[in-house]
Amino acid sequence: MDEYRNLIGGRLVPAADGRTLDSVNPATGEVWARIPASGRADAEAAVAAARAAFPAWSGMPALGRAHFLRKVAEVFAGHAEELARIETTDNGRILRDTLKKDLPGMTHLWQIAAGQVLDAVKGETVILGPDSMGLTRREPYGVAVCIIPWNSPISTFSAKAAYALAAGNTVIVKPAEQACASVLRLGELLAEVLPPGVLNIVSGLGEDVGDPLVRHRGVNKVSLTGSTQTGQAITRASADALKPLTFELGGKSPNIVFSDADLDAAARGVTVDSVYTGNAGQVCVAGSRILVHRPVWDEMIERITAIASEIRLADPLDMTTTMGPIVSAGQYERVTSYLEIAGKEGAELVFGGATGAEVVPSMPGGYWVAPTLLTTTDNSLRVCQEEIFGPVAVAIPFDTDDEALAISNDSSYGLAAGLWTRDLGRAQRFLRDLQTGTVWVNTFRQMPPGLPFGGVKDSGYGHDAVLEYTREKAAIIKT
Any idea where the Aldehyde dehydrogenase domain is (predicted)? Predict the structure, then answer.
C-alpha cells in the first residue's frame, strides 16, 4: 500500500491529526494508496509556510525564479514514466495519454513559464507633463491557492503553479481527493528543488481543508478548475475576505458539423478527439452535444458509430488501450444515472449504454461505461443541458446556420465549441456569435500554452497565465 504525505514548508508531513483517505484504482475498484485527510490545522500551517516564504521568493530577481522553474521542468522530464503510471493508476486516464501527451506537454509548459518571468515585472510609463510622469509596476498577489480537479491533476497543477510561481507568488495546491497521488509524489520530488514554503500541497476533502484555505485572510488569490457548483461555493466562502478568483468550470460544449465539412475529419473530431477516448469523456471541454446538419445526418451517425466501435476499453496501463474507466464510484453513479434519465426523457440510444463488468469482463470491479450516443431533437432535455462528465454524447440535427447557433448558445455553459465547415464566412460569423471562451474550427481540444483558455457564463472567468497572477500598481512622480 503506497502512502503519500503533504508538502508544507519544505517538509513531507502527514495530516496533523493522522487521518488518511483511501485512493481507489478505478480500473479495478481496489484501494491502492492512502493520502492525508487534511483539515484546518494543515491549511493554517500551509498558509503560514507560504507567507513566510513569500518575501524572499517575490524579492528574488525574476531570472532567479526562472532558474528554479527550469529545474522543475527537469524533474518532470526525468520522472515522466513514474508520474504517468501513478496518475493512470489513480484516475484511469490511459497511459498512452499521460505518458506521451501530458508529461512532455507539462515539461514544456514549465519551460515556457520560466521564459515568461520578465513579463510579470514589466510596467508602462506615461509622460504627464514636462516635470511629471506616471508609471505602473506589476506585483504578485502573495499566497495563491490553486484547487485542481481529478481528471488531469498533473496538467492542471502545472498550468496553475508554474505561472503563479513565475509571477512571484507562493503557492498552496489543493488536489481533488479522488486522484491526487501524482501531485503528492510531485511534492516529494519538488521538495528537493524549490525553496521551503514556496510550493505547498495539502490533500483532503474540500469541506475540511479546501474551505479553510479559501476563507483564510492570509490567502490573496484563488484559482479553481472544477465544477460550477464548486465555483459558486468558493465565491460564497471567500466573500468575507475579498480576493480575486479565477474559475475554469464546467461545460456542455457543442461540436457543430455542416454538410460542407470534411466528414472523415469531423467524425473523428466529434468522437475520439472530443468526448470518448483517453479520459472517458471526463473533460471539461468535451463536445458532448454533437450538432449535425440534417443533409448529412444519417452519414455522420454511421461514421460516428463505426469509429466508436473501434474504441478499446481495457487496463489503462496497457499502451494499446484507447479508453479508460470512470474515476470513482460516485462519478460512475452520476454517469449511469444520466443513462436512466435519457431513457425517461425520450432520447434514443444509438449505441453504448453498457456499464460495469459487461464492458470489461476481465476487470469486473472497475467503473466502466461504454461509449454512448443518444439522439434527440429537443435541446431542453437534461442530458443536453447538464454536464454528465462521462463518455456520453447527444446528437441533435439542425437545418440552418441560425438554428445551429441558437441550439449552441442555448446552454448555461460557455466554455468551448467546435465548428466543422469549409465556409470561411460561416466560420467568421460563428467565431463572433458563439457564446464561448474558445472556438475550434476544423479541429478540437487544441489548447496551446500561448493562447488563453477560459469560459463565459457558468463556465467561469479568467484564465491561468502569468499576468493573471499579478496586480498593477500605479505611481505618479513629479520632479
Answer: 16-469
> Cell numbers 479522488 correspond to what residue?
178
Q: Please give the pLDDT value at position 240.
A: 87
3-state secondary structure of 194: coil
Which DSSP state fits 377?
A: S
Grid coordinates representing 112 are: 515556457
CB 209 within 8 A of CB 36: no
Helix, coil or strand: residue 79: coil
- Residues annotated as catalytic are 248
Burial group, residue 18, by CB count within 10 angstroms (0-12, 13-18, 19+) = exposed
Map out the domains of the chain as residue ranges.
2-249+459-478, 254-449
pLDDT at 343 (0 to 100): 94
Residue 278 has what pLDDT? 76
CATH topology of domain 2-249+459-478: Aldehyde Dehydrogenase; Chain A, domain 1 (3.40.605)
User: What cell numbers appear for 144 in the block?
Assistant: 495563491
Residue 320: the pLDDT is: 96
Q: Which three cell numbers stand for residue 330?
A: 460516485
CB-based contact 154:103 (threshold 8 Å): yes
CATH fold of 254-449 reads Aldehyde Dehydrogenase; Chain A, domain 2 (3.40.309)
The identity of residue 376, as a single letter, is T
Task: List Cα–Cα distances, 337 to 36, 66, 173, 330, in angstroms.
Answer: 30, 47, 32, 11
Q: Which amino acid is at 28?
A: T
Sheet holding 132-140, edge to edge: 125-129, 132-140, 470-478
Q: Which of 370, 353, 351 is nearest to 361 (CA)?
A: 370
Question: Which residues, given as ranges, of the chain have pLDDT below 70?
Answer: none
Q: What is the pLDDT of residue 448?
A: 87
Q: Which amino acid is at 113?
A: A
Note the maximum CA span of the chain: 80
Cell of 16: 496533523
d(CA 287, CA 271) in angstroms, rounded, equals: 8
